[in-house]
Amino acid sequence: MAAASYDQLLKQVEALKMENSNLRQELEDNSNHLTKLETEASNMKEVLKQLQGSIEDEAMASSGQIDLLERLKELNLDSSNFPGVKLRSKMSLRSYGSREGSVSSRSGECSPVPMGSFPRRGFVNGSRESTGYLEELEKERSLLLADLDKEKKKKKKKK
């Protein structure tokens, strides 16, 4: 009986060693998986921060566009007063601003844009560029108004 119980204990020890080895391997696998999940979570947090920054940038750009449109309305720019001014959709403006960043705009909205003027800049990427674009529009408006005044003076002189 002693030999049988010794063999039985030996088998139990071997089974426990095997189970211990399997549990260690499972623990290592779980640890590796946890590390991988932590890395993915960290990467996702970084992506979320970048997306939040992009959303904030777009919100600021949108705010700049709204300010620009309000200032244009205040200036009372009517394209019918200026023969060189045509309406161009924001979709066509997107290509000008796309070199500097992404834009989310609704197609079909129109803004006054002089044909052949300012092709290198759109008011799509922040208030600095919006202000610059507005200043260029104001200069163009001043030039057009000056031309109109000159034409009126010439017509008066001819009469």
UniProtKB/TrEMBL annotation:
Record bears the keyword Cell cycle: no
Key words of the record: Coiled coil
A GO molecular-function descriptor: beta-catenin binding
Coiled coil: 6-54
One of the record's GO cellular component terms: cytoplasm
Compositional bias (Low complexity): 96-111
Domain spans labelled Adenomatous polyposis coli N-terminal dimerisation: 4-55
This protein's record includes keyword Zinc: no
Ranges for region Disordered: 96-126
Organism superkingdom: Eukaryota
Family matches, as InterPro entries: APC_dom, Apc_fam, APC_N, APC_N_sf
Designated name of the protein: APC protein
Organism of derivation: Homo sapiens
Lineage of the species this protein comes from: Eukaryota, Metazoa, Chordata, Craniata, Vertebrata
